[in-house]
Amino acid sequence: MRGLTLEIKEGDFVAVMGPSGSGKSTAVNMIGCLDIPSKGKIYLDGEDISLMTESDLAQIRGKKIGFVFQQFNLIPTLTALENVALPMVFQGYEKEERIKRASDLLKLVGLEERMNHRPTELSGGQQQRVAIARALSNDPQILLADEPTGNLDQKTGKEIMNLLFDLHREGKTIVMVSHDAKLAEHAKRVELLIDGKIVKSYNGKNHTK
Amino acid sequence: MILEYFKIAIKNLFNRKLRSLLTIIGIVIGIVAVVGLISVGQGMQNAINEQFQTVGQDRIVVTPGGEGFTGTSPVTSEYSTDRLFEHDLDVIKGVKGVYKATGATIEIGEVKFDNTIEYFSVFGVPTDSESLSLIKTIDFFLIEDGREFGNGETGKVIVGYKVALEGFDKEIRKGHRLKVKGDDFKVIALQKKTGSPIHDNMVRIPIDEARALFDRANDEFTTIFIKVGASEDPAVVAEDIKKAMRRDHGVKEGEEDFKVTTSVQLMEGFNNILNVVQIVLIGIAGISLFVGGIGIMNTMYTSVLQRRKEIGIMKSIGATNAAILMIFLFESGVLGIIGGVIGVIFGLMLSKGVELAASLAGVDLLKVYVSIPLVVSALIFSFLIGALSGFMPAKQASNLQPVDALRGL
Question: Based on CB atoms within 10 Å of each CB, which residue in B60, B87, B176, B362 is the most buried?
Answer without folding.
Answer: B60
